[in-house]
Structure formats: structure tokens, C-alpha cells
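ok so for the tutorial part 2 we go from a plain amino acid sequence to predicted C-alpha cells. step 1 is just haveing the sequence, like this:
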Amino acid sequence: MAPSTAPVSLRPTPATTANPRICRAGSSCSSDCDWNTPSCWSRVRRPSGWTPPPPSGLASGACRGPGASWVSWSSSGGVVVVVDSASGGSAGGTGAWAAAFIVAPLSRLRDAGALIWSCTLGTAIPLWAWGTAALAAAAALGLTILLVSLIQVFSRAPRLAPAPEPGAVVPPLPDTALTVVLPAYNEAANIGPCLTSLLGSEAPCTDWRVLVVNDGSTDATAALARAAAAACGEAGQRFALLEAGPRPAGERWVGKNWACTRAMEQVNTPWVLFVDADVRLRPATLRRALGQAIAEGADLFSLAPRLRCDCLAEWMVQPIMASLLGLGFPIEAANDPASAVAFAAGPFMLFRREAYGAIGGHRALAAEVVEDLALARRIKAAGYGLRYRLGLDALELRMYGDFASLWEGWTKNWLLGLDGSVAKALGAAAVVLLMFSGPWLLAPAAAIAAALLPAERLPWLLALALAVAGIALQLMLRLWTRSQFQVPLTLWWLMGAGGLVVAAIGPTSVWRTLSGRGWTWKGRPLA
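step 2 — the prediction. this is what the C-alpha cells look like for a chain of 527 residues:
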């Protein structure tokens, strides 16, 4: 930007006893201290005793013109004003004002300390313009790091072995048996389709069954489960329904821990698979998972499902959450016995029953809200084999059907999923707000400011460019999510609004978890 040749408007605070006037008026001045008229300025000898000293170099000509005079208009505020008061003072002449430089605490400057006067630019540039550019740059940098890290993590992530070719005959695994446990509480909307997909599976082994545990449902879950099993014909003979019964008085049981514990009283097979009612399996999933678990010597074999979104709230929030989970729980590290990282997906957890019993099972975690993480950590800490695989072509998961359940679910888990650290929970929420909502908020603000403030256009255009880059990176992230999780680009442009929701989940989760107020799952209190 070329140096300004127009007089610089200083507009200092009015003179007071503690802030004396130091300029001298000429005969044409409208007042005894007209700061906006160059001809009103006369040489004023630098007062003695004031601090801080002038910035080095300015008095020797960095601010153009040999007539530069150091003038302090505040004897107590530490403010220094440098002006070129060479003769003439007319715009464009030898006496044209090159610039002014103000040194002061930000709180002392007019307009909330938002001005820096630069000798080189010769104009005033608002700090908040450069601050906006810095925020946009931080958002773009964060999204770049997130995208690159996810690409690296998932490029090395182990996956479920490929399904057999269509038409291939794969016999059930001999000499083993499997029980699939499906805990259900008020799952009328899910129990039928889930059970149908389970009973319609290709036989994973010669002896297997599906045990539905009705955990005190107040809706038609049990009746719908029976109807779904009956509709499956001969396959329905593998179905059994167990009533979990009331939870022990005086004991704290949360989530599905009681239902799973009751189910294990009925299980005597070498393998047990826990699935959630919001999961849908492909026909070959059980056989593929059990075969790979046995082949790899796994004691806990868990699959990451494909994410399914059907409502507005899901499209806004779930792709962001999937990205955060993918980075927060690296699959490669979870599978490394030498790493302390442990993770498993609660919707699909296949245990060797002996290992499950050795770590105490769900009974040992009666009061644990995020029981899948706790089970994975116990398995790994005990030296058992943990295998976590991508199973995107094997099963799909729709976690929440509406905004209310999504809000309840994520506020239940956010703080605990971050090790119960309030700092991590709030920090992660702030980072999400900056990266996902920031670009959508900063871009229009920067565009408007650049149009209305031509003298300050440079930093605003820079902020606009960086914000647009952030939006483009979000699109690239969704394209990557589509390639990995088969999540379509539907409503991708609502990621900014989704960032606001996720950012609000953080502090809400902290409040609910620590206070116990509103901390529920499907209406059941967790505190």
C-alpha cells in the first residue's frame, strides 16, 4: 500500500489537567488545539522526564522528513505521537505528513485500542482486521492438520477381510459356537430391522443364536422382537427373549450394563457378540468377523461401522464427530499391543468369553457410562488381544433419529470420552467452533468490511481469502468422509452450523456430567 499523502487525523482525548494540551494554535486555527489541521502544528520541544523513550530510528528519518518532532500529549499515559511538521504542511508537498506512530497500552488508545499508525504504510490499520485474518488462518491450518492426519491414519488402518465373491460357498466355522446379545430399552423403532438383519445372516458357525434382552422397555420392544423373529421363519428358531428384570436395589447400574450382565448368565458359548439395536448387518458380517477374530487370535474384535445420516441434525453434527473420533482414537495405535491407546466400537464388540470373564465383564463396569472404552482398556491392560477394524462394508449405524436424542447422547459422552478432563472438553469445543464455524462467520464479515473500508482493504481481503480456504477445506474433509465412511455430501454447507452445535455440546456435557442435572440416556438418569 502506498504511503498516504493526506493529513493524519489523530483525534486525541480532550485536554485535562492530567492530560495537558501541547500543540500551539496558528491564527487560522479554529481552536487552541486543532489536531486535524496540519498548519496548526508548530515545533514543540520534546518534554523532559516522560517515558517511554521514543522508538529507536524514528527521529532519524524513518518517518519521512527532517522536521520530525517528538510530542507527548499525555504526561501520565505513556503515549507518544510522532509527526512530520516540516514547513508548508500541504498535501503532496515537502511538508506532507508521512505518517504518525502511536505507542501506548492498548487500553489507552481511542476506539478500544484498535489503531496502529505505521510509518511505512502511512495509514491506520485496525488490529481487529489483522486479528480476523489470524483467526481465519488458524481455522484453515487446523482443518489442514485434521485432514492430513485423518488421511494418514486411515491409509494405514486395518480393515475387515474382504467378503467372499458373490455365489461363493463358504461353510460355517466348525468346532465353535456364538451367542449374539442384543440389549434393548425402548427400541421399538429399531428392534425389528436389527433383528431381521441378524437372523438373516449367513451362518457364522454351526451353533449360534440371538438373545434379545428387554431392559425394562415401556414401549412395544418385546412384542416387535417376537414378531420380527416369527417373520424370519425357520431362522427365527435361533431367537430367544430374556427379560432383564429390575436392577438390584442400592446398586448403581447405568446404560446397558445390567442387561448385558443378565444375558451373560445365559451364555455358555466360546464367543459372545454384543450389538446395539441401531446397527444393521450385511449377511456375511457375522461369519467374516468371527473367522477373522479366530484367525488373528483376538480376544476382543470390534468393527467400526459405516455412519448413516437421515435427519438434519445428523447431517450437521455426525460428519464432524466422525472426523474427531477418527483422529482422537487412531485405529493403528489401538491395534498395537505396545501402545496404551485402546478403543472399541460399542455397537459391535465380539469377545472370547474366557477373556470377557477374566476382566469382569459388564458387571465390573456397572456404573461406567462409556463402557465400550472401559472394556477395551481392560482387555488391553490385561494383556489380551484387541483388534479394532474398519467394517464399513459390513455394517451401518444410525446413532440418533432426531436432534433431542443426538443432544442427549453426545452430551452424555463428550466429557467422559476426553478422559473426564474439563480442560480437554472445553478446549476441544473451542477448537471445533474455530475450525468449523469460524470460516462461515468470518468470510461474510471480511467481505463486508473490505467493501466498506477501502483504506483497510488489504487485511480484510486476506481474512476473506483465508476464510474461503477454510470452507474449501471443509468440503475436502466431507469428500474424504464420503470416500471412507460412504457419507454423502448432503447439506455439507451446514458444517458451520454443525460446529456451533458441537461447540455447545462441550460445555453442556461438562455441566451435566459434573452436576448430574439433565445427565440422562433415553430418559434414565445417569448420576
